[in-house]
Amino acid sequence: MAKPHHLFLLLLLLCATLEFSSSSPSDHLYNVGELVPLFVNKVGPFNNPSETYEYYDLPFCTPDPIVRKKESLGEVLNGDRLSNALYEFKFRVDKIDETLCQKNLTIDQIATFKRAINRDFYFQFYLDDLPLWGFIGKLEEDGWTPGGGGPNYYLFTHVQFDVLYNGNRIIQVNAFGDPNRAADITKDVGVDVKFTYSVIWNATKVRFENRMDRYLRASLMPVHQQVHWFSFVNSIVIILLLIGLLALLYMRHLRSDLKKYSNANEEDNEVGWKSLQHGDVFRPPPNSSLLFAVVGTGTQLLILLCVLLFLALIGTLYPYNRGGLLNWLVLLYALSSVFAGYTAASFHGLFAENGWVILYIIPQERQKCYTFNVIFNYL
After folding, report:
1. Do residues 177 and 284 touch, judged by C-beta distance below 8 A?
2. What is the Cα–Cα distance from 300 to 333, expressed in whole angstroms?
3. Highest-confidence range of 48-52, 111-115, 253-257, 285-289, by mean pLDDT?
């Protein structure tokens, strides 16, 4: 029979094994020295975020081979192009001036970089599913040269990554191009460039559940976050005044009819505007098919919007959830089409002159089917 202290040691060993095996990129848990996945994504002009290109379209240091990550439908529609990189991140292990590669940039490659810098190109990476951005270079106007010299182009060859962690999880990451270690590529000549990077790890008290809050705050300007109470109250007052004005106009025009209906019998109520309304309420409108299609589509979009807001409320959708919004948008649009068809068909059956048309198929002997069209008038 095992002794009690042996059982206790076995239990501690089992807990340690479970803790070690639970560290993986899927649950965002890492041990010290464990590799953290990083993917390069895309580059594009800062003033036009919808225009993006693959990261390796620019002549950066490329791994051999380039392995592209399998993407979901939402990521493809969002323009993401995740690939592996030469950058190496080990959890809580600092790296200073690590060499990425050394390249001899040709004249064509320098021209490509100059066009990108001239348009304020930025790059986007993903470290542990956290997005990070940085500029690839800077442009400086040469104002000291007599006669107004052209601009100077500088390529950032050193990138510093600042990573914040809490326990065994990554909370925040930032990337900075070092302007003091930039290569001058102003002249159209070949240049030898050495690409380097540094990784600095620091502890933070921010919880893992709140690590996406900074992206939500960054996506909204501080001016937009303020509640403009004056505009809000002003809108409410205007709406109330318009409702009161419309109610007053209706009461003045319909006062005589309302008095007549309150004093007359039920048989005498079908006079005046009420009789006209009763005659028009079930009359098929012109272009009814187009109207029914618009009503069905509006119902579909309303349901789609309500479900998306509910998913955002419960935390399923959050800012920079890579491809999540577009995935749900396509899925819900396809599912909500059932409600669009049902709504359009219901209104068509209510207002159409011929009512519903039902197709019955009655099997007979000798594998023959006879089809009958039965038309029911809607009552």
Report:
1. no
2. 8
3. 111-115
